[in-house]
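Bench log. Compound arrived from synthesis this morning; before running ITC I wanted a structural hypothesis for how manganese (II) ion sits in the protein. Inputs:
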Amino acid sequence: MERLEELQKLLNTPQKIVITCHQKPDADALGSSLGLANYLKKKNHTVQVVVPTDYPEFLFWMSGHSEVLIHNPHRVARSKKAFAEADMIFCLDFSVPNRAAPLDEYINSAKVPIVLLDHHHGKTDFATFELWNPQAAATAELVIEFIELLGDKNLIDRDIASALYAGIMTDTGSFKHSGTSPRVHRIAADLMELGIDTARIHRDVYDTSSPDRLRFLGYCLQEKLQILPQYQTAYFAISAEELRQFNHKTGDTEGIVNYALSIEGIRMSAFIVERKGCVKISFRSFGSFPVNEFARLHFNGGGHRNAAGGRVEISLEESVKRFLDLLPQYEEALNADA
Ligand code: 5GP
Ligand code: MN
């Protein structure tokens, strides 16, 4: 990390710190934010985690969740005040400010130092200090590196370790994705040695579905899965009405995109869903096909080579058409790993 000493000097006196992360925080975004928050509080800083949108209930077990300020467009004063009063802003698990919209307005106009801890490609230069490594399996890995760089590894307690472990567990697909390095396993082992309950964390994150959520998954697999063998591609397109039928709650669609990739021979999957005022698309791939490039070029998005997303302000039908119309030009790339 460049200019570490300068940052260390700043952190030597108590600061008012805001930590923020990307929209619809996942276990890595929230776990990294809360893990870092709990560490910085131990160092006598005043810390407020401010997130741009709500997040799934399966993350509510994390220590510090109840103090998170969830930005709400009908109630902007509190988040605006938190940013206005901050001496420093930490940005976690995103590499371009608009991933934290609408909080990007405060990030872009900030006059105070911004610290970026992130592992996404396509970074823009908005931070004062950066610990950015797209090779890292999770931002949580970088939070641990950051704490170690500051010489405070001994301050990582069970609560901090549990939140960070959740980020590493989910971003590596429970330690199965190709970026799961020996280092990741060593970090996980170090966290386990602090006495965290990894089986419990796994269950809290993955096995606490509502009946509606599981039935929605069944519906997607039975009724909505489309398979295009010519392109080694599969996708789902889900309307807002269908979400309503299953009493959709934040987090209920998470992970469904991965099921399509579990079909033998499928190299790319997409989950296209109608949200308020936009259509959100999650992409996953297996092997060389770069879904982050695909998402960036055609769906205002980005992410990692094998896991990316984007959003477009057109109808669900138009989004599906755009997706399908693009496939012929990618036919060769999609079949490259056959
Ligand atoms: P998910 O499909 O789980 O929402 O996101 C998968 C990956 O793609 C994550 O790393 C996430 O940060 C990235 N991603 C998802 N949506 C967007 C988006 O709208 N813009 C960008 N730049 N990245 C996204
Ligand atoms: Mn992440």
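What the model suggests: The mean pLDDT is 97. The first helix runs from residue 4 to 11.
ITC booked for Thursday regardless.
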